[in-house]
Please model this.
Amino acid sequence: MPKYHMLIGGNLVQGHSAIDVINPATEEVVGISPIASEAQLNEAVEAAASAFPQWSRTPIKERREALLKVAQIVDDNTQELSWLLMSEQGKPLPQAISETKGLAFFIRQFADMTLPVETLEDSPTRYVEVHRFPIGVVAAIVPWNVPLLLLGIKLGPALLAGNTLIVKPAPTTPLSTLKLAELIHKVFPAGVLNVITDANHLGDKITSHPKIHKISFTGSTATGVKVMSSAATTLKRLTLELGGNDAAIVLDDVDVKNIAPKIFRAAFNNCGQVCIAIKRLYIHESIHDALCQELTSIANNQVIGNGAEKGTDLGPLQNRAQFEKVKDLLSEASQDGRIIAGGKVIDRKGYFIEPTLVCDIAETSRLVTEEQFGPILPILKFSNPLTAIEHINESSQGLGGSIWSGNLKKARELALLMDTGTVWINKHPDVDPNIPIGGVKGSGLGFELGREGLDEFVQKRVINELR
Ligand code: NAD
Model:
């Protein structure tokens, strides 16, 4: 069975103990992940702290070149990384390949960014500029749904800005990250990049660690609350990218056949385990039945199975805990609404649930009020889009959302009323390295991607000069 190593202070090291990583499509062991002790976490932090003075003073041109080397290594090893990602995460191979290629692409885009000195005032009385400095040791905590790309979104800007990094992937998807670390570890001076893995026992040790200056966290809202509270004692800088319950509003003037596959993909891609998936679908009453019929036919034609098999559209839920949670929601779906497609757990090895569409469901159903993070989509009918938006805005989360309409003016007016970090029009989602993304309310704090995302990894210093 392949064994993987952590990266601490430039060395590939074994853990204090180890756990099996399971392929969610077969329930077989993919590989053995090391588990760090608290002492190993401390070693990684010491290594990152020692590497910081030199790395922070390394010219940005050299840091950029290092990131470009990382992107090249990812490109050169796409097949191996993608296969591992598919095996531990469950997504179909073509999607794992897209994620791996996306990692290289995003890192190249970050490498292109700059840390400009901005002049705020140049007047007869005052000269004021803002400089951008690295913060120090940054911890990147990553979830299991899109492990490589979400890591890249943190690693690229954190290291470009001159910080040193401790990466901690989720315990159920550590292997692709450990493999990546093995492939790229010689690109950086020892201690600049460290990767440790845990069994969900080191999170609070990281977030309360006095020598870690910033946490960039992606995960659930519940864990985000713990992170914020634990980081408060040392007043750490925080970026929190948390859960979402994205709604899509479909107006009466759309081309139903054209949008149905796009909406289906946005809701069920990665088996619904995407923070910015469509998780509540609001359809105008005049096209409700027609769109439901199209979506049902797409759902019934999905090939569900092992992502390694050619032609698979949908893989399994990523881990047993999530599988159990979604099974619970599924049993409520038949009580709270009318199932028009799917509705069953698939009787085979692996964590498979049919893509499920639920109509005639109340706003108060847990399937509507909570993030399901699985292949079940609640569908709600409306006559007035303003009433739909009122309901949507009652959510405690606000990550993304979308408006679908042939009338762009109307769609833009409605988009401005949706209380979320992003509103897409006639698409959902659209993630680009140069466009910031962030949540409002319970969906998080701060931004990732774009200039705003890079600024989350810098400390600004104002120089204010008397003229
Ligand atoms: P999770 O919160 O359970 O775990 C995320 C990471 O936090 C894992 O690495 C985990 O080991 C670690 N962790 C666990 N306990 C911790 C603690 N006390 N302190 C610090 N870290 C701790 O989330 P998950 O179930 O792995 O991921 C799914 C969630 O992530 C969903 O809610 C999804 O919407 C959200 N998500 C958000 C975004 C975004 O950009 N907003 C992107 C992807 C996923």
